[in-house]
Amino acid sequence: MSVVLTLTSCAIIAGLSITQTASMALIVQDNDELEENINEGLETQFVDTQILLKTLQGFDCHFTQVNENQINVQTTCGNLIYQRGAVGEAYKLYLDEINDVEGLVQNIRSFEFDYGRNVQAYTYDHIKKNLTDDMTIVEDELLEDDSLYLTINIE
Fold first, then answer.
1. Cα 115 to Cα 45: distance, rounded to the nearest angstrom
2. Exposure pattern of 1-15 as b/e (b: 16+ CB <10 Å)?
3. Cβ-Cβ contacts under 8 Å for 106 (sequence gap 6 or more)
4. How far is residue 4's CA from residue 23's CA, in Å, rounded to a whole number?
5. Which whole-number Å values give the CA distances from 110 to 11, 17, 27, 89, in the listed order?
6. CB environment 70-91: b (16+ within 10 A), e (fewer)
7. Nearby residues of 51 by Cβ (< 8 Å), 6 or more positions away
8. Where are the beta strands (DSSP E) in 97-134?
9. Longest Cα–Cα distance in the chain
10. Distance of CA 151 to CAs 46, 94, 118, 138, Å?
11. Beta bridge partners of 96
């Protein structure tokens, strides 16, 4: 028997992404609505702290992990604060000292895309490590949309 797994990047799965929400919050809203939205935080798909930190390490930014539920990121375009109530919850994104709206939105898009890739890579490695003796990967293909297509044979 064979099992087929398709690992799709979180950035692809998340239909309405944080970048679209952030773009709308930053560009379309008037100042009162923008301030209210920033104070409430923007929803993200980021749950895993280690993967988020790994993602941030790949960028030209300075970040500080305040504790396991808050990471502060300083970029030339503005500051990002990723914060959550408790471990296991998704982080919310708070914006601070915005200098360049377009640049900040582009930074958020890049973080989001790379986080999705890092989650995909972690999941792929986790699957490979946890295959039992009666399981083998028969096919391992990267699709055009960057999804991974795995066929695992179970004997």
1. 9
2. eeeeeebbbbbeebe
3. 77
4. 36
5. 10, 12, 18, 22
6. ebbbebebbbbbbbbeeeeeeb
7. 115, 118, 119, 122
8. none
9. 61
10. 28, 40, 21, 5
11. 79
Tokens for 98, please give them.
Answer: 């915005």
Residue 136, phi-psi category: left (phi > 0), alpha (psi -120 to 50), beta (remainder): beta
Enter the tokens of residue 138.
Answer: 């028969």
pLDDT tens per residue across span 6-51: 555 544 444 334 444 444 444 434 444 445 555 678 888 889 999 9
pTM of the model: 0.70
Confidence band (pLDDT; 50, 70, 90) for 103?
confident
